[in-house]
Amino acid sequence: MTPASEPCQFGRDGTLMGMYHGVAGHAPVGMLLCPPLGQALMRTHRIYRQLATGLAARGICALRFDYRGSGDSAGDSLALDWQHCLADIRSAAAELRVRSGCATVIGFGAQLGGSLALAAAPAVGFTRLILWDPVLDGARHVAELDAWQEELRNDPLHYARPRSAADADGQWLGFPVSPHWRAQLSAWRAEPARIPVLIVDSLPEAMAGGWSPLVEAGAQVATMRPGTHWGDLHRLEHAILAPDLLRLVGEAVEQAA
Amino acid sequence: MMAERAFRFGRARHLVGIAGLPPVAHGAVGVIMLNTGLMHRVGPFRLHVDLTRRLNALGYPTLRFDLSTMGDSGASAEADSREQQIRADVADAMALLGSQAGCTRFVLIGLCRGAQSAHIAACTEPGVAGAIFLDGYIYRTAGFKLRHYLPRLLSPARWRGFFARKLRQVVAPEETSFGSVYPPRGQVRGELAAMLARGLKLYFVYSGGIGEQLNHARQFRECYGHGVAGHPALRMDLLDGTDHTYTLVCDRERLFDHVEGWLRQQFPPPKTAPAG
Fold it and tell me: Do the strands A220-223 and B106-111 form a parallel or antiparallel pair, or are they unpaired?
């Protein structure tokens, strides 16, 4: 029987909140689930929980967590910082190794969680990455978020009258954004990883440029349907459903094992 | 050390929550936040996190947690109705905050379905001293219909929109709505009256995002009558212009100011416990 998940606190002064999904007996392989940010974090909470529970049932321990300034972890949303996020992934991987004793850690992440897992991979020592619709071009993502925010303030299903630019300024879909974070995100450009990478592609429309430069470096791509509408203004509070995700991830992990 | 602690708790150790534990004098009023819709305890746009931390800074102990089967919480394996589960979960939450912060009285806060959960628990749980219902129960009244339909009858643009919607429904039927079903108005009115008679303090805050359900502040009185709406222990505010989940930061700040103001007035914050 799979043990129940346990809430945990780790990092300096216990500022990071997480949920550890242990397994009965020894777990040679563990998976660190790096969350996305903003509303995507809220919308993927359920699927991350399902994924971690499913992995634990297959004998793979898993840790879910929130970065500083996001979710339940300490810090204001405005304090988000790329380097802190990478440090938090390192802390979370260490926590997973200590709790489970696993020698092999696979990194998983959706959207910006995938980007951060990719960026953190060398320092963390991930043996493999599974990236779900990762953001590979920060500047393009920033432009997309700006466009969604502009659409939001003019959306008649949210507001009877359009909201002023000042009311909506400095935010992306419900979250305050510091100039520092905006600049860090704009500067993000993915570089190929030196480990096996599987990209789970659920974008409704093909992205310009595809999954370059990861595919050129050997990353595999698995298409998942139905597509995921990450920026749908009318589903900001809706959980993202991905019935095929556990199967795709499970198969990838079994191949790796 | 962070002043928040994660707990697994409850009668079957099936609930997960985060307690904010400021150093307070024994017997402070604890504030418990319930799930908004089906979202986990963090709330839309981190609303629950930001609000509970703001209340912690004032000295209120808080708990944001996931009800049975929501967020990170599991099922209790009891064959209870959903209402019984909610009551038992809230009782477990009060017991946790009581053991961790010495609270004996509690204020529940809930948005949308969270307000409905707060209503269910406030009906029977003796530890509940107050509740803040964000977009809680409200029913369309004759006044609502007059205000809603009369301007439309006289507007050619509205008629064009009406026919366009009807045509769209024929061509592409809309998705089924899974909105919650309200209990009869008379039942809710009676339950609110009973809460007030027991000495509970109630605060209703409505957003501007439920225009299909509420279109004027006076609708609350039309809906529940003077006995409830005019009771000195009940207050109602309409935050016009906001959307249902307070997506914009300035709207959330406006909401937080209202919640803080009401709490300070009705349940003054505790004096900080002496260090050591």
Answer: unpaired
